[in-house]
Amino acid sequence: MFMVVSSSFLVSAQTEESQADTASADAQNPSELLKTVDRLVEQNNQLEKQNRELMDQIESLRKVLTKQAAAIKTETQPVATSTTAKTPQEEPQTAATDFASQEEPYKWGAYAPNLGFKVANTDHGDLSVSIYTYARYLNQLGVDPHYTDAFGNVKNVQQRQDFQLQKVQIKFLGWILDPKFRYFLYAWTSNASPGQGAQVVLAGNLNYSFNNAFNVGAGIRSLPGTRSVEGNFPFWLGVDSRLMADEFFRPSYTSGVWAWGQITDRLDYIAMIGNNLSTLGVSAAQLDNGFNTISTSLVWKPTTGEFGPGFGDFEGHDKVATRLGVHFSRSDESKQSQPNSEQFENTQLRLSDGSVIFTPNLFGQGITITDATYQMAAFDEGLKYRGFSLEAEYYLRWLSRFRGPGTTGLPRLFDHGLQMQTSAMAIPKMFQIYVGGSTIFGQYGTPWDFRSGVNFFPFKNKVVRWNNEFLYLYRSAVGYTSVPYPVGGSGPVFHTSWELAF
Questions:
Q1: Is 11 found in the same domain as 97?
Q2: What is the mean pLDDT of residues 40-64?
Q3: pTM for the full model?
């Protein structure tokens, strides 16, 4: 750069000297003097052009040096990087663990899958925007129009066929003031449930990372009572739909506080205290005044120390990756603190025939449960290798301590069940096939479901997916408008979805 500047000054000096000599020699000839003036103007224009080109070169060099200095500064801040990578929060934090290391950190406008685009980056914080949505066609016309519950009551089943822009989620996430202090805020809609409570949700959480072993958060997140609510949404084999047994046993999303971290390099934990099993559609005035909802998970990854995001082996592990998980949840629930049956992403305490336990006179005339204690344990295991996956989970649930008119002497209820899924990448990064099924062994029936499906990833990543799935139901114990299976449904169901998650 300095050589270019020196050369320019030398050319300028020589030109000025030549101009002076020419002007002196032609001073007596006006016509020649005019020609000399014209030449001087032309030479001056050329010098201005050279000067502009020189300033452009200087500005380009300044930008390159600024980026290099920022990269060196980032490499000297390992604490902030590890904080992002170790956050096992709801959907976006899980994606941070899997993808953030692939991107250049602190780059304005950078993109990371499921973390979206970085739209602001300052010394005092940053902001990324991410969107999740999918369009779904659902056909339940093959489901039986009626079913009989365990008490002999005949009930209707709606046979749906519709197209929906099923869900829209807009996420805002990043850090503020300190890279260890992070926020995750979102708007979340269920467009299949207009007019129902919690159709539109504005929620999120705040968290602070002390180190890899201990992090704390507060706000709304899923109780980590089964594997699907650890924070791996939307990386499931199907689009936004769990197997029936998982949906029946699991806890849901609630407000509370939690801690998470690593006990060892291959052993992770999450522990949460919440208000109730499901806060969606439930106001603060409906909650009891005790913090009696707890949920925990302990996950061991013995072979590789990681398992990848969610279900299935889209990434294609070269070494066998394994995981073993243990979960436990407990909550005192009342009829008032439970969402209505059609609420968005609701969790209901149901019998295995699909009946909500708080239904008046369900167990006999004059018997109505108003309060109950829920306890649930889950054990999961999984294996991934070269595009193949095999994953299973076993559930146990106890309902006890019933209160309400006529409930004296009502025995404790126990249900257990399991689910299993397997998948394979028929074409790596592009075409995946899977099958799965689940069953519930309950005191009021033994419902089950089976599903098979294919996933097509046109851009060889998880940002865009086309899913086609066939289900067969037998007396489904759970269901609502957001999922493809109805309560009590028996028969075939088909749905196809275009999913966008960036």
A1: no
A2: 70
A3: 0.77
